[in-house]
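To: structure desk
From: M.T.
Subject: fold request, one chain
Message: Could you run this one when you get a chance? Sequence is below, nothing fancy, just the single chain.
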Amino acid sequence: MLEFKTILLFAITAVAEIVGCYLPYLWLKQDKSIWLLVPATLSLSLFAWLLTLHPTASGRIYAGYGGVYIFVALLWLWLVDGIKPTLWDMFGGFVALIGMAIIMFSPRNI
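Reply: Done. Structure tokens follow.
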């Protein structure tokens, strides 16, 4: 159960970070409203707060989160950008998830 909760929290955190970065991208690259910076700021604040909810060292959280972020970013590529990830993209995403699992769920008494 702890593993599922950790992965779900990382996935929500990744969406918050990606949205917080995507909205300024829309403003800067696609001439959308500067007002997108308001929800972007809120989303990035949510992202930072969500990372504090894990009960382990911050460096381990950041390292493990990175693996989930890679996987969610590839889903974003597909679902939002409309670009289907390649087999190599998905393979890399799964490798990143395996790395996250090793970092987050390995025994600590070694």
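Reply (cont.): The two ends are 23 Å apart (CA to CA). Let me know if you need anything else for the meeting.
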